[in-house]
Amino acid sequence: MGEPGADTSEPPPPRRFSINAALDGFFFVYAGLAAVWLAWLVLSETFAFGWFGIAFFVVFWLVLAYLVLPRLHRILTTIYVPDYFIGRARTSDGLLGDPVNLALDGDEASVHAAMRAAAWTRADDVTLASSWRIVTSTITRRSYDEAPVSPLFLFGRQQDFAYQQEVLGNPARRHHVRFWRTPDGWLLPGGRRVDWLAAGTFDRAVGFSLFTLQVTHKIDADIDVERDHIVSTVLAANPDARVVILRDFSTGYHSRNGGGDSVRTDGDLPVLDVSDVREERVAAIEESDISDAAPERVRVVPGVKTS
Length: 307
What we know:
The radius of gyration is 23 Å and the shape is globular. It folds into two domains: 20-80; 88-292, no CATH class. The protein contains six helices and 14 strands. Helices cover 35% and strands 23% of the residues. The strands form four sheets. Strands 3, 4, 7, 8, 9, 10, 11 and 14 form an eight-stranded mixed beta sheet that branches. A two-stranded antiparallel ribbon has the order 1-2. Strands 5-6 form a two-stranded antiparallel ribbon.
């Protein structure tokens, strides 16, 4: 018999071997190796076709950027990236994405009402049609206020929705923020309950991802500026909204997101309470603005001249 106060808890049972999990892992790795081999074959054939090799090189880039590197990242990040909350979203390839820099209280209708009142536009879902439209809009520099944002994952699922503000009609430059509903009973580190988490960044240009070579938006490094922009626009447009700042929610740090862009933050986490914002009040304000024919509001963006 053990001594009083001794730990009598039994060790957890050993994890059972699963044939399905083993097969899934095998074919996952096999597909990654096959993708690498395919990329090598395409690259080696490129040099045998003279000028036609340019087309083969484009094919090689497509295979490498959209098949090989994402597959390899998924294999490796399964090993070394934790699957619990660490204050970062993840890309579909498993890489660490944008930092979570905002939290909200309120139901979904209140969040939509608050964002719409603050002149934010809900982003379209990613489809073949919306993807093609943002490509053509970026090339031709034609406005696309509802342009989709790439999926990022938190709690094992992609964002519930996203909002954005296009800058001067250029889809390559935009404020944008993704929202995830928190699981039932989930608490922030420190024990605070919130209804939503969000990640806001500013797209400054279009370029290539450092990690996958895919075409993507490049973000501004100072994500605190974007965080504060989101909070200030919501508070200015919604008198019923309130904010509490969780100081030093995380240690201030600098890192890179899933596209290889530098990010830095002071670690503070604003918690916006929009639970008292109502759709009817927002609709009344919008109707009043239209009847008064108020001039269009100019969105101030650091480093961008508006006149």
